[in-house]
Amino acid sequence: MPRTSRRAGSGQSSSIGKALTVLRAFMDQKEQWGVRELATVLDQPLSSTHWLLQVLRAEGLVEWSAGRQRYLIGPELERWGAALGKLSKRHALGREAAAALAAATGAACCYAAYDTPRRRLLVVAQVPEDATALPPLGTALPLADGPAGWAVAALLPDTERMEWLTTAPARARAGVAAVRAGVAAGDGLIAAAVSDAVGSPLGALLLAAPPEQSGCLRSAADTLAQRLGGRILAGVRGTAPRLLAELGTALRERLPELSLEDAELGNTDRLTAVEEGRAGYCAVTLERIEAAWRGVPPFAEPHGRLRLVLPLAALQLHVLVRADGPLHSVADLLTARAAAGEADYVTAEVWREVLALVAPSPAVRRRASARMVSLPYAEANRAFAVGELDALVSLNAAPTRDYEMLGREVPLRLIPLPPALMERFVARHPTFTAGAIDPAAYGAGGASVATLVTVLGLVTSATRSESEVGQVAQALERKLRETGQPALFWPDSTAVPLHPAVKR
Description:
The chain is an alpha+beta fold. The protein is 40% helix and 21% strand. Strands 10, 11, 12, 13, 14, 15, 16, 17 and 18 form a nine-stranded mixed sheet that branches. The protein has a six-stranded antiparallel sheet with strand order 6-5-4-9-8-7. A hairpin with a 5-residue loop joins strand 8 (189-195) and strand 9 (201-207). It is globular, with a radius of gyration of 25 Å. Mean pLDDT is 85; it is low at 1-12.
């Protein structure tokens, strides 16, 4: 996004302009930001950016996620976005479903997304947009207010639904009691709830039609639920970006109802989205999948629905420094400024432990850990190129295109890991093995560079159908063979079950 020019004016108008610039970054670029990252992109002082975010947070326009250590789009801004047509991908799918249903029935239709914390629906798509029989775009609908809310209320967990019913008006209680097969009727309208893979409400389709159209409505809601739950979450600008992009193309050709999303979510949040039915699949490291399955930090509880689908790529731990610099070993990096991704990346945890294994004392270990810089891979590459970082660390599939391009700007050297260090690390983390990177992958000569290797894998939920998972696995296996990827297998030591579709 081009940087917004600064205009002269009063202090108040200047502050408003800067606040709007911050909001535009959330709307036009991505839905979550770190303070330092946002200040750099907007060319604003860090202190000013932090103050503006606090003001916007107080108004509900952004919210702070302690788990991700980032600011996210807030509920008030989401309401604005719905009213102004700034639709998220989920809302866009809702609009497509409403348009298809309206075309099939000849009746006006809208999609309302469920706002879980406030127990209300937000009308985010309407076809046609001037339909008088439906609530206007951007309207907030309490669950007690008509068939869309009743259909969603019927899907609430038993305890939550009973609590809500005790305060709901008699008409709403009757409406919920009359819900059949997820469809509610009232006021000349019919509504079908849209749920995720574990039955939790995501929203509702509302149709200005008689109950005779319930079958068509229910079918549309089921299709939308499959599409909303069929997201494949992967950070395609991070680990193995080129491979994931190619796999996404293959899936779109075979299964167009699935979508590969360049998720800003960290590995932890991606796996939780799959566990909770908010996404169908995600591509993450086996280390993180194992942690989620067992319910060990950073996960608060076991993710028992997770199922393995397919190992996608071998990821090597890349430790890169300038070839013309003084750093030659892991021990040299104890005093270096190194970036190993963001704080919740598996890479950051791996590198912190590598430093701990090589540090001669706890004090040295703490100082080395404190020197680590938390940055997304792309930002770290830029900082390294201009000399602001001494080393780059990432888990990536070699050759990595970003490093190939970086090597054209600055000469690069891969740092090897000592065999004894790798042996100790693998003993603690059986999802890793000792391996190597061929320097020729980055245009360098010499012997292979010893390093740690793990697996990037695709994981789904036990609730996904065998038919769909089988088709996904077949499409990806075919593409992996076409791209020349070596055959990979899940290690025998993994405790996470395979999905039934891939057991055969």
